[in-house]
Prior knowledge:
The protein has 173 residues and is mainly α. It has 8 helices and no strands.
Amino acid sequence: MNFLRDSQLPESFRSEDEVLVELYSQMLKVVRHKLLHKGDAVDVVQEAWVRILEKSSTLRDKEKLIPWAKAIAYNLASNANRARRHEANYEDLENELASPTFAFEPESMTELSDLLGRLDPTTRTLLLYKFYYGLKDAEIAAALDLPVGTVKARIHRGKARLRTQAEDENGHT
């Protein structure tokens, strides 16, 4: 970490090791406070170290190393929370689709194709993008030039229509 040797450190720090220990401690506090899953804290701090090393040339005022590093750690913790939420939402959706209450168990690809074929083209496209191609809602919205909320609502309604069609075909009411 050459950028620490060449910089003017606060007088309260006597050595580079002390700076690194303090920096790690401060980043860990920020990350633990921000993260929903505290077990990810060490990984996020490690990722923050990588970012700090990669971006060290962008730090203009070396006296602001700790606040800068804490900001990087905070942002990475926010990203980790978002990623966890997305994973949880996707897992919930997969579990919902696999649950017995969904009542959608096509006997063949032909039956699935038939059910999808009865949907309007836009809904069919949304469901295929989401569940076949695995695109995220934001990616679908960008591809179709629609707001993300509209995409989510249409996917939800499309799933409901698909469920209703499957139930009607299987004789459930």
